Each structure stands twice: as C-alpha cells, then as structure tokens.
Amino acid sequence: MKKLFVMAAALMVWGTLTASAVDLDSAGRDPKYVETIMQRSQKVTDALKITGTEKGTQVLNIVANRYFKLNDIYSERDSIKAVAKTLTGDAKKEKMEYAEMLKDQKLYKSHFGFIADLSVYLTDAEVETVKDVLTYNVVNVTYTAQCDMIPTLKEEEKVQILAWLKEGREFAIDAESSKKKHEAFGKYKGRINNWLSKRGYNLTKEREQWAKRVKARGGTL
Q1: Fewer CB within 10 A of the end CB, N or C, for the chain?
Q2: CB within 8 A of 9, min separation 6: which ones?
Q3: Residue 163 CB-density burial (10 A; 0-12 exposed, 13-18 middle, 19+ buried)
C-alpha cells in the first residue's frame, strides 16, 4: 500500500512538472511581432482572470504559440504559392492546390493539439472562453441576436443553431485574419438562415418585427 502511495505521489509530481513546461516559441522572431502577439494573447488570460499567475503564464504561452504556429503555416502556404506563380499551366495549378492542401493538413493537425494543450490547464468552460475571445465572441452575440429576433424558436432549433455556430468557431479560430474569421462564421450563418427558411420562418418579416421591438425598447440594430 505504501509503495502504491509513493508511486501515485510520484505520478502527480511528474504530471505537475509536465504541465508547467510550456516554452514560448519566440526564437528567431521579430521582437516587436512577439510583443504584439503577447499583448493579443493576454486578452485571453484577462478574460479568464488568471493574468500574472503561474497558470496564466502557461495559458498565455500556449495561446501565443498558437498565433506563431498559424503565422508559420500561412507563411509557408504563401511561399509555395509565390513559387507557383512563376509556373504555368498544370504545374502552376498543381502547386497552388498543394499549397492549400498542405496548409489544411497542418491546420487540422495542430488545431486539436492546441485544444489539448489548453485542456491541461483549463476546464471545458474555460476552454470555451478562450475560443470565444479568439473569435470576438461571435457565437454568443449571434446566438443571442437570433433568439431575440425569433422568440418563437423551438428548443431543438436553438440547440442546432448553437451547434452550427460553434462548428463555425472551430474554423474561425484557425483563420488567418479578422476578415477570414468572420467569413468562416458567415458560411454557417447562411446555413442557419436557409435552414430556418425551410422550416417555415419568414426571416424578412422576423427581422422587421425585431427591429420594431428593439426600437421600442430604445435600442438600435
């Protein structure tokens, strides 16, 4: 029994040491760029109220490293495309397609690694907060607006809408710019609108009535 206790204690210590080993991948990067990324990443730890703590430092580095990784992936894609532009015909087309394929593969693989790294330090609810901060809280803003616009939505419809918005968020997290993040959500917003229309909702009428309700309570759309 004593031996088992010692082994368990050792595993706990090992896990703690392992969890604390998050190095910032800043070597060889422009110091000003690194500073900008650290400031951007701190928005996450500020939202979680862990800035300045040991936990906050690890999460800060994980988020910053994700920004670095995304930059590396998209820079590599752009470099390959630059070479592709010097080619012609099928060779150019194949090189362009390869650039996008490689980018997609690396984004897919690293995306889950990023979430797994966060999960070492954060609860599921906290990971959700990280995702929302990285995507301008679009999920919550859009979901709240959708429910306010159509107060007659059924519970199962609300569940589906939220699920699609969160699916869109996974792609938005990996997008290369603010514009691309919003475009990722835009695809899912379009899907939601089409789905609601097929279910019998007159979205034009719903928006008109919504605008009147918002105006009546002193707000604007």
Answers
A1: N
A2: none
A3: exposed
Residue with tokens 């919550």, as numbered in its chain:
140
pLDDT digits (tens, 9 = 90+) for 88-122: 999 999 999 999 999 999 999 999 999 999 999 99
Q: How far is residue 24's CA from residue 63's CA, in Å, rounded to a whole number?
A: 10
Pick from 71, 37, 43, 22: which is nearest to 132 by CA?
Answer: 43
Q: Which two tokens stand for residue 112?
A: 């889950």
Single-letter code of the amino acid located at 196: L
pLDDT in tens, 179-189: 999 999 999 99
Decide if 156 contacts 55 (C-beta within 8 A). no
What is the distance between the alpha carbons of residues 141 and 143, in angstroms, rounded to a whole number?
6
Q: Which residue has the tokens 């019998």?
A: 200
Q: How far is it, in rounded angstroms, from Cα 11 to Cα 55?
A: 20
| Helix (H) or strand (E) segment spanning residue 176 | none
Per-residue model confidence (pLDDT) at position 58: 98
SS3 160: helix
| Measured CA distances, 87 to 98, 144, 151 (Å) | 14, 49, 55
